[in-house]
Design goal:
13 strands
């Protein structure tokens, strides 16, 4: 049983559609008390970090997600959902995150760009696999995935399983024990993305 967390910050239907394509069902859950009933949870997200954390805090979902993470059951954060896994974000000030992975979220530093690039980083790009992960089973070392974001995570290499180049190399996939995060959208990334979601189901 897989829970898809609804906290008013994500396009849930695209995730549901992706799981339908691989023959799996997810249940949309907004009640913190229900999370413990599931084997896996997915934290999606599109929008602002601060708004997302306010929704999670006010609904009681923050505490429920933290408790779930301690159970050892798999948890997957997607896009903004991945960023929320970290300790804090510099988007619109300094906002505390879930703190499940040590690190922070910052805006793309355009001063490091060697060419003029648009922000947000939007469209297809390559995720370079940096480390073995069950989520990459059956995939090549470089995989094309779909991105839409203006901020990215900064964390220790021990948690990094994938990186992507846009102006410079940034962290695009992370793993810490039972906690996984992808900056790109697997649910919008056709065959490669569906394989990542299928691998998550099979963990």
């Amino acid at each position: 049983m897989i829970a898809l967390i609804d906290y008013n910050m994500g396009n849930l239907q695209s995730v549901i559609n992706a799981f339908n394509k691989i023959g799996k069902k997810v249940e949309v859950v907004s009640s913190p008390d229900k999370l413990r009933e599931f084997d896996k949870i997915i934290l999606p997200g599109v929008g602002a970090f601060r708004d997302a954390m306010e929704h999670l805090n006010s609904s009681g979902l923050q505490e429920a997600i933290n408790d779930f993470s301690k159970s050892g059951k798999p948890l997957l954060g997607i896009c903004l959902g991945m960023q929320l896994l970290f300790e804090n974000s510099k988007e619109f000030g300094d906002t505390k995150g879930l703190g499940l992975i040590e690190g922070r979220v910052e805006a793309f530093d355009k001063s490091k760009f060697k060419e003029r690039l648009k922000i947000p980083h939007m469209g297809w790009n390559t995720l370079h696999i940096e480390k073995k992960s069950k989520l990459f089973d059956g995939l090549k070392e470089d995989i094309y995935l779909y991105f839409v974001h203006s901020f990215h995570a900064i964390c220790r290499d021990e948690f990094v399983i994938g990186k992507t180049d846009y102006g410079y190399s940034f962290v695009s996939a992370v793993e810490k024990e039972n906690i996984y995060g992808f900056q790109p959208h697997p649910e919008k990334s056709h065959k490669n993305g569906l394989k990542i979601l299928e691998n998550f189901v099979n963990i």
